Amino acid sequence: MLDSRPLEKQAPIVLGVIPARLASTRLPRKVLRTIAGKPMLAWVYEAAKACPQLNDVLIATDSAEVAELCERSGWAFQMTSPKLASGTDRVHAVSQLVHADIYVNIQGDEPLLKPQHLTALLSPFGRPHVEVSTLKVLCTAENIGNPNAVKVVTAMDGRALYFSRATIPYDRDQTNPQYWKHIGLYGYRKAALKRFPTLPASTLEQTERLEQLRFLENGISLYVEPTEYDTVGVDTEDDLLRVDAILRS
Fold first, then answer.
1. DSSP letters spanning 97-132
2. Which of 65, 140, 169, 180 is the most buried (most CB within 10 A)?
3. Which helix (H) or strand (E) holds 216?
4. What's the burial of 204, exposed, middle or buried (CB within 10 Å: 0-12/13-18/19+)?
């Protein structure tokens, strides 16, 4: 007699990928810089490995020095081409070699990353129509007008309407709206990630220098999950010193 019980749905395989290149314009070699006694990359990798929703984590790099650190530390890594233009392109390159259902793009310059960020990031994938996810946190007063703190506005269902370095929404009547800062972590279903490099760099992407706008301009929705944990992306020497003080406190 055939078993009529429904088959259990298999959980998706989720791979965390940390793009890590040395050729940063404003702060060269930043992923190898020491913060509170450890390389920046170590803080990011260890936080990602502590997230129970990730099946595995690997570092995607074009640098022999980064690969050397990975080997010494026992971290999984994958060499990628130095010609790749963005972190998303680097994650896409990994997806051609390592199978997963969902890929998580974890910036290598986010040493304040927590496992809770990644848990929140993966939450929208409980809805089958979600192709890409990202995060937002309440914007502090000093960051509302800061072009380095990207703002995001969303629809009622969490779908991103726009990302901008400008202050959005514009408070015409001084009503003091809530402002949300975008945190540059992304989750992608494999099909959406596969499409990314086939799409031409979009006008808005080039204008704002924000690669996530390529998805929006090509009709691919991003769903934005709130988190209570802010981060400090390390782009300058001042950022490095600030994060060092936070992690030592």
1. TS--SEEEE--TT-TT--HHHHHHHHGGGGSTT--E
2. 180
3. helix 212-217
4. middle
Distance (Å, whole) CA 157 – CA 207 = 27
Q: How far apart are CA 161 and CA 158, in angstroms?
A: 9
Classify the C-alpha dihedral 46-118-129-152 as positive or negative: negative
Q: Considering only CA atoms, which of 4, 50, 15, 9 is closest in space to residue 188?
A: 15
Q: Which of 114, 91, 120 is nearest to 197 (CA)?
A: 91
Check: CB of residue 132 under 8 Å from CB of residue 187.
yes
Query: pLDDT tens for residues 156-214?
Result: 999 999 999 999 999 999 999 999 999 999 999 999 999 999 998 889 999 999 999 99
Whether the pTM exceeds 0.90: the reply is yes
